[in-house]
């Protein structure tokens, strides 16, 4: 029987939960992802912009193991836009309880979850400025709007971008003929 491989694009609903499990202290990070489809409502707001609504909401739990678990723990945060690829599996467990008459009962519960094989930060609205591996520091993602605002305001002087790091369109045209 083959596994169902899927990719889900969404945002993290909560902070990644990092655990060490089993006698060998295997690394596990649990993620909860919210994903939805957006569609226009046909209505405009007071500024004339189209109003959109989220439909077909999906909330799914994902598990990351080993080095993927550690990398997710240090790189991701609540609200982070992610693309997660992995296998859909059904997790089953038993719950003990009592029925209306007070008689003990065991109920079998299950849920579909994603065992992640790859987790990617979605760069459509954010930029990653530095590699955490190289700098050994935790990163904070910024939206494109935040980065543009920093260029116009006094906070731009506090950034780690130097004049030598700036690439202009003219630089790209000159280097276009050079092999990579």
TrEMBL record:
Keyword DNA-binding: yes
Keywords: DNA-binding
PROSITE patterns in UniProt: SSB (PS50935)
CDD domains recorded: SSB_OBF
InterPro entries per record: NA-bd_OB-fold, Primosome_PriB/ssb
Database matches in Pfam families: SSB
Key word Cell inner membrane present: no
GO MF annotation list: single-stranded DNA binding
Protein name per UniProt: Single-stranded DNA-binding protein 2
Organism annotation: Corynebacterium glaucum
Gene that specifies this protein: ssb1
């Amino acid at each position: 029987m083959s596994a169902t491989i899927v990719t889900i694009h969404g945002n993290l609903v909560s902070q990644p939960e990092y655990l060490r499990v089993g006698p060998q202290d295997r690394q596990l990070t649990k993620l909860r992802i919210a994903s939805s489809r957006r569609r226009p409502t046909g209505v405009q707001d007071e500024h004339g912009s189209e109003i959109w609504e989220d439909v077909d909401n999906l909330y799914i739990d994902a598990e990351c193991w080993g080095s993927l678990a550690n990398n997710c723990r240090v790189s991701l945060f609540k609200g982070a836009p992610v693309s997660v690829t992995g296998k859909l599996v059904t997790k089953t467990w038993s719950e003990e309880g009592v029925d209306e008459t007070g008689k003990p009962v065991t109920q079998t519960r299950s849920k579909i979850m994603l065992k992640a094989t790859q987790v990617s930060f979605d760069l459509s609205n954010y930029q990653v400025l530095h590699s955490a591996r190289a700098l050994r520091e935790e990163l904070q993602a910024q939206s494109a709007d935040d980065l543009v605002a920093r260029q116009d305001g006094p906070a731009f002087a506090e950034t780690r971008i130097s004049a030598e790091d700036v690439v202009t369109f003219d630089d790209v045209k000159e280097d276009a003929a050079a092999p990579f």
